[in-house]
Protein: Erythromycin esterase homolog
Amino acid sequence: MDLGILRYKIRMNTLSYLKIAAQCFCCYFSIAYTFGQTSHSVLNSLIHANSYELTLDSNGDLGGNGFNFIKEKTQSVQFVNLGEQHQNKEIPIIATSIFKYLNKLKGFNYVALEQDPLIARLSSQEPYKGDRKRIYELAKKYLHGFTFYSDQDLNLVADVGSLSKGKGNAIWGADPTIGMSHYLDELLKLKPSKEAENILIQLKNKANLYENKRGRNFESFMSGKENVDINKKTLEKLKQSYRLTEGSYTNFLINNLIVGNRVKWNYHFKNHYMHSYEREEFMKSRFIQEYNTAYKLDNKLPKVMTKFGIYHSYSGMSENNVLTFGNFLHEFAKSNGMDSFTLAMYVNSDKNGYSRLEKWAPYMVPFINSVSKEKIVIIDVLPLREYYVKGTLSNDLKKLGLNNRDILNFKRHLFGVDAILLIGNGTLATSFQTGIKIE
Structure:
């Protein structure tokens, strides 16, 4: 057994009784003496008692009790599910370090990302696989290829490719595409019919006007409101010009274009439920496609780390009443007789270009009030659940100014993830390699 984990277990066993005693004392004290410690400080005490510091050195290596906690919680899991706040510098670095550990000691060879399916497939193949420089070149060639294009996100893609020993694609792209140019180039390489070629060239000429730059909100030829209706009809016409077979590369390319455009169409025309539903279902179906391929090639159940936005990653129902991708991962692992581990990752900083977390995510106030903004801290939320179920925390949350929606989102995190990571003094991601401004 890892010596760090053994020490961690001894520490946990020793402290568990002290924690229980302290928690019970706090609860008793707050109830019996109204002039004494408030129930708000009970919540603080619970969070503080179940918090562990994670260290991150200049080489990107993790340490501290927080890393021992991660090791302990991932002992027998099939999926490690990272739910992130996007465009942060530290999160992809931490994710890379976690994958290195999982790859070396736990047999993990695959990472599923909130990235375009084609760009992920290209990144998993020669000449791009495992090569940071070539991954940067790919990102610069197709500015709307990678959904998330920071230096740190691109490094994660390259580093996973160099570490993976699996026979399947090292990177699994499981988000509807936001760009079109790279798909059109691939389709033109496949010697289409004259009818299909004319449509592809027509689309390519229009895409070139939009996709030679990248700005706010991922605006591209595919995602711009002025184009989605026309593209919807043109892409259906393109599909009809082929005799597609299930499982073919051509079908993969055209289907991804159609789904990507339809998701944006629903977004622009305010079909919020269908926008969310199709996006989550696409994530699940893409994961299954890559999973089945890896399973057949490796002849064993794939172990996978994922990194998606937090609202896709927790278990349960989303705000738009859709069962999340994270919920699917949890149930899928259970169906295989294994477990999953979900870690929500936020930046706990009001500087370095960040707005205060409590402003846009007030449901995080109970957590950020209880830990240092100078450190990286992991909070184990499992011990808090029983207190919430018994109603002990209800008044505490209201005293913090949380409204019903905030409390619901607090509950989603309490029951939908296993732990929360808060990055004190976190910094914005950089994009020196692509030159695209991070927004």
